[in-house]
Amino acid sequence: MRNKLKFYSTTDRSVRVTLREAVLGGMPPDKGLYMPEFIPRLPQSFLNSLDSSDYQTICLEIAQALLGDDIPSAALQNIIHDAINFGTPLVWIEDRVNTLELFHGPTLAFKDVGARFMSRLMAFLIKDSGQKLTILVATSGDTGSAVANGFYDIPGIDVIVLYPAAKISQIQEKQIATLGKNITALKIDGNFDDCQRLVKTALADSDLLRSLRLTSANSINICRLIPQIFYYFNALRQIGDYLSREIVICVPSGNFGNLTAGLMAKKMGLPVQRFIAATNINHVVPVYLTSGTFAPRPSVQTISNAMDVGDPSNFARILDLYNSSWKAIQKDLAGAYYTDDETRQAIARLAHKTGYVLDPHGAVAYLGLTDYLAQNPRFDTGIFLETAHPAKFKDIVEPVIGKPVNIPLRLKKFLDREIKSISMSHRYPDFKEFLLLKSN
Ligand SMILES: *Cc1c(COP(=O)(O)O)cnc(C)c1O
Question: Which residues, 6+ apart, have CB-to-CB distance to 81 below 8 Å?
Answer without folding.
Answer: 56
